[in-house]
Amino acid sequence: MSATIINHGKYFQSARAFAEGDKLWVPAEDLRRATGWELKPQGFCLEERCVPIPPGREGEFRSGDLLNLAVMAKQTGQPLVRDDDHSVWSLGEAPEVIGAQLKSLKAPDFTLPDLDGKMHSLSDYRGKKVLLMSWASW
Q1: Residues 66-84 pLDDT 10s
Q2: What pLDDT is stored for residue 97 in this prediction?
Q3: Is residue 103, in this structure, part of any structural domain at all?
Q4: In a domain, 110, yes or no
Q5: What residues make up the domain containing 37?
Q6: Any domain includes 122
Q7: What is the DSSP annotation of 48-84?
Q8: How many domains does the chain have?
Q9: Which residues 6+ apart lie within 8 Å of 69 measured at CB?
Q10: What is the mean pLDDT of residues 96-121?
Q11: Residue 128 belongs to some domain of the structure
């Protein structure tokens, strides 16, 4: 079985990942490539941030060379949603990351097409005044 992991808008296909109920077992290398998180002696680490595995619960997080993405996400405070029919798992941002972004008052970057299909990123206009208009049909 395989699974698609979505993280920061990027899709990663893990050929050896498999779901077991609400758990997603992923090879350690695929987890690192898909999310940036890797298992180190001090726990799950993303750059300098490390989240320890609670003593006595190692089996929930690791089975051989496979790591449980769902339990890791819960431990790191990241929301995780899944589509069982398509084997797609999407990892959200941890609350402290979102809080830091909000405190910075810096708008997140995004890219959208104009009416002619030309793509525009907000970061292309950094330092300039930008008017954003949105519309919804409801």
Answers
A1: 999 999 999 888 999 999 9
A2: 78
A3: no
A4: no
A5: 3-97
A6: no
A7: TEEEPPPTT-HHHHEETTEEEHHHHHHHHT--EEEET
A8: 1
A9: 5, 17, 23, 24, 25, 26, 31, 35, 80, 89, 91
A10: 86
A11: no
